[in-house]
Predict the structure.
Amino acid sequence: MGKRSRWCLLLLAGFVTGCAHAPPLPSGFQAELEDHSGCDRKGATLPVTPLRSQPREIHQASYEQKQEEAEQPLHAPTELPPSSSSAGGREGGGLAPQSADTLFAGQEELPLDTLVQAVLARNPTLAQMIATWKAVQARYPQVTSLDDPVLDTTLAPAGLGTTGDASNGYRIAAWQRLPWRGKLTLRGENVQAQARAAANDVDDARLQLIESVKIAFYDYYWVARAIEVNEENLRLLRKFRRDAEFNYTHGLSPQQDILQADVEIGRQQKRSYTLERLRLVAIARINTLLNRDPDVPLPPPPKKIAIIDVLPGSAQLRAAALARRPDLRALANRIQAEEAALALAYKEYYPDFDLMAAYDAFWVEPGLRPQLALRMNLPVRLARRRAAVWEAKAKIAERRAELDRQVNQMNYEINQAYAEVMENKRAGRLYEQEVVPKAELNVKSAESAYQNGRIPFLTLVEAERAVIRLKDDYYQFVAEYYRHLATLERAAGGALNLDSIDAATASSCDSACGR
C-alpha cells in the first residue's frame, strides 16, 4: 500500500473516530446524575397569573420559555432526602423490615417535625420517584447523540484486481447519518422538559408523603386522647358504682343502680378494646411510613395541641398555590415537552443525510481512489408526517386541558379544606371554652344530687355519658382541624407560614403584571 493509500486510510480513521462522539452534555448534567442529593432546583418556575386567566397564560409562557430552559442544566428536585439505606433504614435498599429501631429512643413524646424528616429520609416512595427522575435524565445523551457510523469494506480475491496486483483489491468506506439541523436539539429539549417534570413529580410525592405523615400522626393523637378519656370515665363509673352500692346497702336506692353501673362499666371496657385496636393500627401506619416493622413501639403523642389562630385567606392560598404547586409545574413542563415533539414533527418534513468517505483501491487511476458521497431520504410520505403533526397537536391540547382541570381541582381542594379547617377550629374553641367545662360541672352537680337522693342514678349516668361524648368530640375536632390543615398545606403547595405565602403571592403579582 502506497503513501497516498495510507494517508487516505488515516483520514478515514479520523473521520470514524470523530463521528463516534455524541454532542456535549448540558452543563452540570453528569455531576447531577452521579450525586443528586446536594443539588438545588434550577430552571424556570411556573408563572403565576390571576386565577381565571392563569391556565392559558401558563401555556403561552411555557412556549416562550422553552428555548431558554433548553439551555439550562437539568435540575434536581428540591430538598432531596438521603436514601433509606443511608438514613438507618433497611440495609442495602432491600425490603426486609427491621425488628428494632432506636429512632425515637429517649423521647418522652413523639415529635412531629422529627417524624416528618424521618419519613422523608426512610420511605421508599421518594427513592422510587428519584430513580424515575434519574432514568429520564439519562435519556438525554441517548437522544442527542448521532447514530453509530457504519464501516463498509470490500476485498477481492488475490490476483483478480484490475491490474493483476492483489494489493490493490480492496475498498473501505464509512457512512454517517446526519439528521436535519435542529432535530437532535429538539429531541434534547423534549427529554429535558420531561426530566424537569419528573423532578417536580418528586416534589409532589414529597408533599403527599408529608400530608400522609401528619394525618397518621393526628390519628395517633386522637386515639391516645380517646383512651385517656375512656380511662377517666371508667374511674368515675367505678366511683359511681361504689356510691350506688353504699346507697343500696343503706336502703337509699334500688339494686338497679348497681346493675346499671355494671352495664356502663362493661360498655366502656368494650370501647377500650376498640380504642386499643385503633392505637395499634395508628402505630402500624406510622411505622409503615417509616419503612420498618409495624409493631415497633412509638413514644406517646403530645398531650396538648393548641389550635393556631392565624391562617392566610383562601384567595391568598390559591394565588400562592399557583406559584408553589409542583404538579402544576410538572404539567407545564410536559406541555413544553409536547411542544418540542410538535416542532420535531414539523422537522420530519426535511430530509436526513448520509455522508460517506471511502478509499477504493480497485480504481487504476490513483486520483479516483479517495471518494466522498452524500445521500438523503426523500420525505414524500406526507400522510404519515401530517398524522404525526396532528398527534403532537392533540397531545398538546390534552396536556393543556389537563392543566386547566388540575387548576380547577386545586381551587376546589383549597376552598374545601379551608372551610373544613375553619369549621373545626370554631367547633374546637367552642367545646374547649364552653361546652366541655359546663358538661363537667353538670356531672359534679348530678353526682351531688344523686348522693342526696334528689335524682335517679340513670340521670347521673346520662350526664357522664354526655361528658365522654363531648370530650371525644373536642379531641376529634382538634385532630380533624390538623388533618384538614395538612390537606390544605398539600393543596397550597407547602407550609402555611405567612412569610412564604406572602413571597409566593408577590411573585404571583409580579408575573401577572409583567414585571
